[in-house]
Request: fold
Amino acid sequence: MARLLKGKELANVILRSIQRDVTALKLRGITPTLGIIRVGERADDISYKKSLTKRCEAVGTAIREYCLPVDAIQEALLGVIHEVNADTGIHGVLLFRPLPRHFDDATIRAALLPAKDIDCITDSSLANVFTNTGVGFPPCTATACVELLDHYGIDIAGKRVVVLGRSLVIGRPVAMLLMHRNATVTICHTKTIDLPSVVKEADIVVVAVGRPESIGCEYFREAQVVIDVGIHVKDDGKVCGDVRFDEVTPLVQAITPIPDGVGVVTSAVLIRNMVSAAQRNERF
Amino acid sequence: MARLLKGKELANVILRSIQRDVTALKLRGITPTLGIIRVGERADDISYKKSLTKRCEAVGTAIREYCLPVDAIQEALLGVIHEVNADTGIHGVLLFRPLPRHFDDATIRAALLPAKDIDCITDSSLANVFTNTGVGFPPCTATACVELLDHYGIDIAGKRVVVLGRSLVIGRPVAMLLMHRNATVTICHTKTIDLPSVVKEADIVVVAVGRPESIGCEYFREAQVVIDVGIHVKDDGKVCGDVRFDEVTPLVQAITPIPDGVGVVTSAVLIRNMVSAAQRNERF
Reply:
């Protein structure tokens, strides 16, 4: 039976590690504040916002929310972004995506001030993930995957890693982060032929296909570590990942559960990034 | 015996394809002009510059050269970059790298105007290779690898590709370009364990390790396509690649020779990018 790589344990470590920084900032009159921008009322977004709010409050940081109706025009969203850019009381920004289709994602991403880009949506942050020059923050979920492996003592260097999914939100960035850590990384996607065989070559598999419980035990073998990035709400209200957890867990060496897996670490990384952004901002 | 994927044939196709654009620009009084910036007197750089000059002249474009002594200070190089940025008569810039160690590569790269960055050294161009949003030019060598495969009718989509080397100049960008073309790409490097086994999984192998004749037939199997990106001048004055050509050619399905391989296509792509930059520039 696989070892469970639970996220809450690590999330608590991360949140404790920033506690002193938050206190120091507050003593100087600065409350690290996260700006959340939402378009429409997607259940996923609202549920994530709620859990983020709880965690932010627990460590003494604040959240400010900017909501737009689902039919808002692009200029309205750009206006909100310009507003948070200019607001010195907002230290980091989370923009919920994917945006409704009538928005031009590239234009919206480019509008955010790189210094407030704590979840890696601007080109400048993305370039850094590619070049590894240490400026900006990688996407929180990609960082969460790497730190989960570190936290549970799973070596990355020299390991074969297969990333399932090539999105800019998670697949490509996590592949780069793991490559920078000296893994040998293969990026798979919808056009990969004989996916199960390719996945079986891996020591570590990062699953980010975005389809609930779509990856079963035919993809895996013993001795593999599985990081499941998917979070989906099922009809019965329970959450699940991209992997068929009950089926795969008896087979592999280690796996992230859902809930209490990557997602909770992602939130903690986001808050840590926001606090770092507040510190950097103060130094300038 | 492997089919030879010769570069000159494709280079001529590329250069012919821009001939009409060059003529049209010249009729409007614009001679597409490449700015070359060199620090020191490296034999490789000088030899590449000579062949580029010949090719530029053959298609009616111009080259302007900016040379700095090997012990030039960073500010001197930045000064030259600002000069070519401001000069409307220079349409694209090639900066020979690696620079001597006393230069800060990131600072130098950032100084170049993205619109003149025809070989993908700025963060904005590199971000585009990662995000695939169609702005800027990918590195010429990476483009040359992809176009060589296309020219010789070698399918990329769905194929297993192994890239040997993870540099920003070639390894990472060519991996991204081939992934955007729906290959399943694995990036290998000095920390990869059992490299020959990993390379044997590939249908297409891009070799960019930067060590002359270091990759022999123990890495390959039949039915593979080998793109050798290395160009090295041997003691006897002959050039060679990263692959031991004589040893590998009898084994694999197709291979790029050196000379007349990737390098000559790279020059043609560079000139094409420069002409495109001149056209874009004129439109603004």
